[in-house]
Amino acid sequence: MPCTASTSSAAASRPRTRTRRARLAGAAVAACVALASVTLASAQAPYEPPGDQVMIGFWYDSADPYYDTPSIINQKLGNNVPVFQLSQQIPLPPFNYTTGAGGAAPESLIERSATDAAVFLTIYPTSFEAITDDDFTELGKQILDYQDNLNRTVFLRYAPEMQGSWMTYGFDPVGFLQSWTSMYTIVKAVAPKTIMVWAPNTPQGYPYGQQYTQYSALSAANQALLDTNGNGELDAGDDAFSPYYPGDDLVDWIGLSIYYKGVPSDVQNTLQPDGYCASIITGTDPSDNSVITNWYTNYCANKPEKACMFAEAGAAYHTNHTDGVSQAALQQAWLKDCVTSQTMLDRFPRIKLYMQFEYEKEEDANNGDKDFRDYRILNVTDVRDEFIADLASLSDRFSWAQSRAPPTSISSAGAPAATNSAGSSVIQAITATTRPRPTTFPSLFGYTSDGTQRAEWAELGVMVAAGVVGAWTVMKTL
Length: 478
Hints:
Blueprint: H1 15-43, E1 54-60, H2 70-77, E2 83-90, H3 108-111, E3 118-125, H4 133-149, E4 154-158, H5 173-190, E5 195-198, H6 213-216, H7 220-226, E6 253-260, H8 276-281, E7 284-285, E8 290-291, H9 295-301, E9 307-315, E10 317-318, H10 327-338, H11 342-347, E11 351-358, E12 360-364, E13 370-374, H12 381-393, E14 398-399, H13 450-477
Parallel strand pairs: 1-2, 1-11, 1-14, 2-3, 3-4, 4-5, 5-6, 6-9, 9-11
Antiparallel strand pairs: 7-8, 10-13, 12-13
């Protein structure tokens, strides 16, 4: 029934009837307003912050030699970050108790932050063919454990940057769409509150040099999907995203990998052009002003029921090419242009999460050289202080996590005892141990001293011995 209200001119001679109709019309209008409000509210994406607020997230490096944690990040910022990103493979490799490799992501570090921050779990397939339905079911169970037993909101970013052959599963839209559909169906059936994030790579440079022999080697079905402009080949005029988009009914949030690595060279420390991020997401490559696929209009503005994010983002300081501008100048320019810009926030209101890539790593430069790049913004005092000041000046625009005591026990099956030999609280299931531990024995209870680890092994021996004695005693009575 349409939301319209009117009164007939014939009712003018009947004031009581007219009043009654006016009341009915008013009620109809009120009902329509209420319905519209409900519709608008329901159009919001899950976990989307209210109004014009946005969130800052961090993808941190907990490995040797950095050992970064959510608690350290919160302490440095003076605020509780609302979203922390972790990653793992699928099929999930078993945890290696000697090297600390494999196993589930160390979600326990988020528990130790004593906040209600959301878990942002990125899943990298080894290959689509290697994944079974059971693998997706186990992933769903892991997420359900986070949701039900730990009371966490969980974002799931599956097979990101799927357009590129630098990923083992990349440059295969047919395989991606099939795998995404299976993943979505199975994980949502097990853990229906999971927030599904579809996140391609930046359209800059698309099709990333794949248009030659790599494109020719693809199946006819893949070639047909990728040739969006129908000219019989893959080129910069083709849509960088649509061949891989699963459909609105299979996506909750829409992300993008976006970085600044230098213009014109990706091994030099130069300041980024003004409006760098705004240009990229609206269809212009700032390096040469060429036309690229418009991410924001097509996938954010035109999909108001979805929320958008920079799923991983940052500015690279080239530590083995220290000529040019300082790290502070380079990264402050990035933050002021792409994250804490009032203009950026107002112009692109559907971007609700900015995920900082807080890593230092070696990458291949465009010229083939190995380039060591530092994306971290909290390890340089000037960058961190400027970032904190900018956040404070925009305090009403950012949503933060709330403090919450970490759990002292885990009810899920397979969890260890409530405390270890040092009396420390166990705050995550056995499958989420802190890792890696490359030089000492691994501990189910996080980073501990060698003495504590030896005590844990002794406790294990006592428990095993007690179990054997108990079983022997029971058998005697049978």
